[in-house]
Amino acid sequence: MPTDSPKFVDLHTHVLPGLDDGARSLEESLLMLRDAAVDGTCEMVATPHHNDVFRNDAASSADHVQSLQHEAGSKVKIHSGCEVTIDPDSLQAILEAPEMWTINRTRYVLVEFPPTLAPRLAGRVLSEILNGRLTPIVAHPERMPAFRDDLDTLQSWCRNGAALQVTAGSLDQRFGSHAQQAAMRMVRAGLVTIVASDSHDTVKRPPSLLSAWRRLATEFGDSFAAQVLSVNPGRVVRGESFDTIPARPRTRGLRRFFSWAS
Prior knowledge:
Layout: E1 8-13, H1 26-39, E2 41-46, E3 49-50, H2 58-72, E4 77-80, E5 83-85, H3 88-96, E6 108-112, H4 119-131, E7 135-139, H5 151-160, E8 163-167, H6 177-188, E9 192-196, H7 210-220, H8 222-238, H9 252-261
Parallel strand pairs: 1-2, 2-4, 3-5, 5-6, 6-7, 7-8, 8-9
Helix pairs in contact: 4-5, 7-8
């Protein structure tokens, strides 16, 4: 059975009010932050969408972050960021002015691929970002049918220096069985660097990481769960290099014992 969880760092949230399809009001943002704190999150990155519908960037969201932090107090530290849906224009913008798009003004940028983008083209886009001395973090690949079953392609992205961020809710079937199975395949293949909430509200897509911690710690051990939910995202926020550690299953006998004990 997992021991006490560490303090989580949530690298992907839509907590800023009124900027995208996430929190609709300041009140909802404050409730999300309250729930995140209760769940064990001590830091989060506000990553509003930048796509054809919502036009945001990390630099412009910084003022919103400061305002929300003032209202919320200090229980959860909020950092600025952005979830960029990749198209030719946004790719050029990232390369020309990375400080507008990166997480907490580090070298890390959270990117989302449109569902119609071919894996080969996605790989070329990641290479362009890497050649610009930035590190792309690919959001929720387990929820992208074009990529989630292609472990060879995902492995090539990671070998080249990209990182994969799986959604916590995918691990408990919040996004269906296909996403859950894909997420666990990526975890077992050693491809997952970060697990984040991708929270949008307090009910359907809450800022919850504790259930993901319990699932991963029970199956793979506390060290692995802490690495993807606390250590690596914390290093990203500070602009430091992260580590990818293998997800080694607990022994079968221990898993049977813990299953019985729980």
